[in-house]
């Protein structure tokens, strides 16, 4: 059976594999959380938040794909299955049911706060081991932090 | 707090809510399973299957969104959270790691076989209760069955 | 003079003609009501509501055209003239002049409530007589109900 | 409640409000008359006239929107409700039912003749009071007169 | 050798196979008849009819593809070969050579009259056996009947 | 009745008419054969062959239209009716039913071999009589031969 | 001063220069004649002929540009000035003023008849001297003859 | 025979007809002069001037069409025939043959100087008689004067 | 050194130069003020105002370019340097730092009030001297007044 | 009042704030300087330089927006007001009035020389404090240096 | 192993193979020479020549692909490897390093002069053997000669 | 003669020049090798590999252009001439003639293995000397490694 050859040393490979694995879980879960809120939000700012959440989902899906294919590229099979995401995700759990627009804003400020901190740590961890993966994670951080500013700016 | 008013009777509402809830879980999990295979497939047909799986994902995401918004429309908050999907999905679990192209084809033939049977049952269940939801599910079936033909046709 | 031949029996023709006639009046008046509010809305949510109303108008115009051409297709000349709409429309009358954004939301929730109930009755009436017209009306209902959900969701 | 501040003097405001009000009614009714004929025309030139009428409708709707928003801009709430249009329109009434292509051409030549004369008068009335509204009405006239030429040219 | 598994019962499969088989032959022959007239029409309405016939061809080809792939989807290999179409088509035969525009209109009114009646019968036949195929045929009918209205409207 | 004036001498007209007539039949039948295989192919290369066949169909339809309109242009009414194609086509007949991908490749290699030989003869026949038709047929040959290379290249 | 070097022999250069010079004058005048008729046509077929004439103009302008740049390419400065076109054009002169649609059709049938005969002669003249220019003129002829067929076909 | 009805008084009609007639001749000749220079320019700035001249031609053609159709609209048949343009144009005659880029710039500065002065006079003449035509001519002037600035700016 | 020739008399030139100079400064500063607020706005309406301000910036930049190029066109070199804008702008100064969404709305209502009054004066000043510049300024006013309506409408 | 939370430590925040502040001023002033030259350039290379300067402006505006939003993202309100730019910019001042194309090239070579040196210093300063801002500034440098090469290459 | 069947006789095959082989080498080397100059050109015409060279490269790459695939089509494997191009190319060698814009123009005039002569010979050689390859080479010549005119025209 | 000023120190300049020089040769040769295989591949996976190779070529050409322009930007004239590439390339030589699809996959796996190792070394070499060039090379590596994964994944 085909095995994908890694361009990295074994030590580097171990570090990068772990960082990408966790980043992928965060990003897939972020895309699911974004859709969940997209469907359940209510309140006077419904439309604004409803569409903003689709930008969250689009960005999360795009970055999840880049991160997963980087993982395959360095020879580590990515794992984005539902049970893996549900079991290992560090995102706070969302309650089911309708949710007020103000609560969505507050929830996502908290959610981004955690994801960004973890992503910054991962980017730091892989900096020496694989600068290409480091660059990929810096792009993720740049976009997440920009969205984080916007969630804060509209806190009200 | 806002509650979305249902245009259906209580009995109809109960039937349709359940059908849409299960359809949503199938479709979200199908989109995750499609991406998982997209990232892990190997073999001589890698590129063909790799891109075909993105069509699976695109279709599953599109229909998941339509089904979820129909659920909201009839007054039932949709639930597409990771833990719900992981816990309640009826799709067979996939193993982690690289997977041969022939095995992907076989896996998805089995997977579609089950999804289609369940979707046909749901479409039948809601036919009297809500013809609009029935139409939405028939569209899902039409696309899934067409993809099912193609998976079978390339079984080899 | 040319007369368009109806593919329906006389009885079916009568039922379907009436349903399409009334649906057309509802939809043309909805497009006029949407534009009226689009021009007169004020308040903090001005931009959100202003653009949302153009989606109401676009949908109403698109479906009015489909319904009218279906009427012509079954041999009944459509009637969407100003005096017919003003005289026979069942939509509640709007007051002239500026209107607050919250009032627009409340007005359109009431307005959609009535239109949807009437459209559901019409779809039911033509189901046996002409399944094609039935399908057309189900598409109208699907879109109107989705917009109805959104109006409710942003009620605040 | 919000009131839109007018950039015009009171006298100018009064003149311009009236001109725009009447122009809006003409244009909304023209769009309805265009659709009515679009749906009911028959004869050897059916397709040519059918599609030409959609250009009439598109132009009338576009200019109605510009005129109405100019009215709002100068602080006068626009009125394009069905009852206003049906009650105050100066367009000749159309008969219901199928109509021969030659008769459509003749009808619209007469209809444009009247609209253009009224629009020219309105443009003249506002020339001193508000050159911006004057420019807007001259654009309306330019397009209507060009369409008028075409209706005449194909009179046969 | 691969055989496509049918999601239908044996009885349903037999009814649907036959309906789709005949629909496919009608649609392929309609596309050939449309092109034939497209190339051979003459007369003052040449351009109008010439381009209208390309819309006939486009619609016939699109629906033929959908019908054929639905047939494959339910496990029945489609048959759109020249000899099958020539041998089994129920469309009236066209004469070779130049044809006047008025005659084209008359020919296609007759031709659509027959196709629509047969399609309505087929849609009715499959309604219980396979609602997905029923929906596909209703879409065919909706488009054919709309084109039929236009052919009649321009009869002159 | 209108007759299209030929820009060719009588002798040239006769030669070119025959060449274009036969080319049209080959191309229409090629488009039908391509669709037939597109719908019925099975095997591991299903998707690759399935989409390649749509390129065959697109090219055959495009060139059939050019050839037929050239025939009309030189005053000879084209004949692409189902019975003409079925009766006079020189393409080998295809069997109905599912067909393996390898067999599709072999079939189309044989099929292109014949069509190309006949098209080369036709191009040669009209070279003196009408260089414009000669150029049209050379374009057909260039595209068919390029596709022929690809069919051979993937023979395996 | 720059002189463009000709890739042709002196004899070939002389023959090709003359052919391209005359072709350019025909094509520029055809574009002016097409616009003249586009602006002045009247009658029941006004719109059809009005738009068809813009296709004449577009084709004539495109080919005039190709022919003129080919002339420059072989080292002969092109001449498309108004006085050259007016003085040397072989197109029949058009009368000023409104012109009936039927007369436009008749006029352009005559006009194309002449242009095509002259273009065929020019293509023949340059065949040995410059096959590239020959190809360019054959493309002109192919398009003109196709338009000629359409003008004849709609003669009525 | 159809005559286009003028929306202007007889006096106004006479003034406007003359202004539009002369403007049309200027613009058609400008488009021919632009193409002539486009084909014959040489020198180090060849490409810059070559493409700039196509912008001259595009603008001249666009405005010629607007002016001519305005003339038709007010009931005066436009005249843009080669002999009219060659006979009545006030543009200075260009010499045939290759022309240096610096000379093209100098020529077009002179040429625009004259056209602009005449267009300003025409706009002034029609200001009272027909504000719509006045607006059309002001648009022509705005574009010509902007191009005139650019020609001067690159004089060197 | 090149000097751009003015198509205006000396008196007209002086009046128009001044009007365009001041309009340019207003528009460049408006684009800077719009971006400043775009970056610093906070509050529940963050996204709505954030994007609305980009429309302010786009419009200001587009009109600044048109006004500056008109100035160059009439022979007056435009001046949009930072020091000129900072020194001569009549817009009220904005404070640095975060700013609440409601305050942005209030600020821009005041800001537009002033700009519009000055632009109306400038349009009036140049009406006789240069109708082309007058038209350009009327377009600026039309757009600014429309945006002014929207700012007022959403005041809340 | 909302304050945007910074993902950086206080020391890092101080360093990055200053670097982004100065980068923003450079970029806004570069966009103004580019437009100023775009409007005032003259000479034989007018068009080349005129359009090249719009690329300068587009790049400067795009990067200014990215830098300003990064500043907001790290919790520092950006300052791009006219007075800030005019007061603090380190770009050399440009003279008002027409400027020769060669002088524009020389001016921008000097201008880019300074901006690039300052940007390189800023990128270096933030490298440890915030790698995301470092990446953003490296992108700015990459584009500025490429444009700098082009300005030098065309120095002549 | 697969061998591609040639539609040509052995003699024709030999002649055409050689012509296409040499044409491919010329075109690949032309694309490399174009890029080399694109990167190294300097001087006042930098931008004009820089972008013109990309058109050279685009055309050379497009035609190289067509020629190589025609070679494969007639059963001769194409050879565009670096060592083949470097060893067998008949283009004059370029010096490394910066090159003045005037020298680029002179170099490419010489370079095109040679390529065109060789391409004309090849087109002549294959005229009888394979008219399809002849047509392909005539298209190459048409484009190269047009670019050759432009290089000469801007020689200065 | 113009010399491009380097923004780097002499030592940094030397290091970066060498890295970019070698990267350019690798990338140009990769684009030639990709086209060579694109034209000569045969076997059941012909189409898949044929199109995949065009993605190789597109990426290699895009990155070659970026690398070469970066080299010019830092003041080192790039060298991508055929003799340089053929003489200095470190890619293994390909045999001429048809090549089986499996062999293409194996060849490119080996080829990418070497290119990636060399690119990683170059990126490392320039990291301190020029972070901008480092970023450019990391982008090259990211894309090459992703394609390398895909070649391996389809090894079979």
Automatic annotation (TrEMBL), chains A, B, C, D, E, F, G, H, I, J, K, L:
UniProt region (Disordered), positions on chain: 72-94
Domain Ferritin/DPS: 18-153
Family annotation (InterPro entries): DPS_DNA-bd, Ferritin-like, Ferritin-like_SF, Ferritin_DPS_dom
Superkingdom of the source species: Bacteria
Gene3D superfamilies: 1.20.1260.10
Coiled-coil portions: none
Listed Pfam families: Ferritin
GO MF annotation terms: ferric iron binding
Signal peptide: none
Homology family: Belongs to the Dps family.
PANTHER family: DNA PROTECTION DURING STARVATION PROTEIN 1 (PTHR42932:SF2), GENERAL STRESS PROTEIN 20U (PTHR42932)
Protein name as annotated: DNA starvation/stationary phase protection protein
Organism of this sequence: Jiangella aurantiaca
Lineage: Bacteria, Bacillati, Actinomycetota, Actinomycetes, Jiangellales
């Amino acid at each position: 059976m085909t095995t994908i050859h890694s361009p990295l040393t074994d030590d580097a490979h171990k570090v990068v594999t772990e960082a990408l694995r966790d980043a992928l879980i965060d990003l897939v879960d972020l895309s699911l959380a974004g859709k969940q809120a997209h469907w359940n939000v209510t309140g006077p700012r419904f439309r604004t938040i409803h569409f903003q959440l689709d930008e969250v989902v689009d960005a999360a899906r795009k970055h999840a794909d880049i991160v997963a294919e980087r993982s395959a590229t360095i020879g580590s099979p990515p794992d984005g299955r539902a049970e893996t995401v549900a079991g290992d995700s560090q995102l706070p759990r969302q309650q089911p049911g309708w949710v007020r627009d103000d609560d969505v804003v507050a929830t996502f400020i908290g959610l981004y706060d955690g994801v960004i901190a973890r992503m910054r740590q991962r980017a730091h961890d892989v900096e020496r081991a694989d600068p290409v993966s480091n660059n990929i994670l810096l792009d993720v951080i740049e976009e997440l932090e920009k969205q984080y500013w916007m969630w804060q700016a509209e806190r009200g």
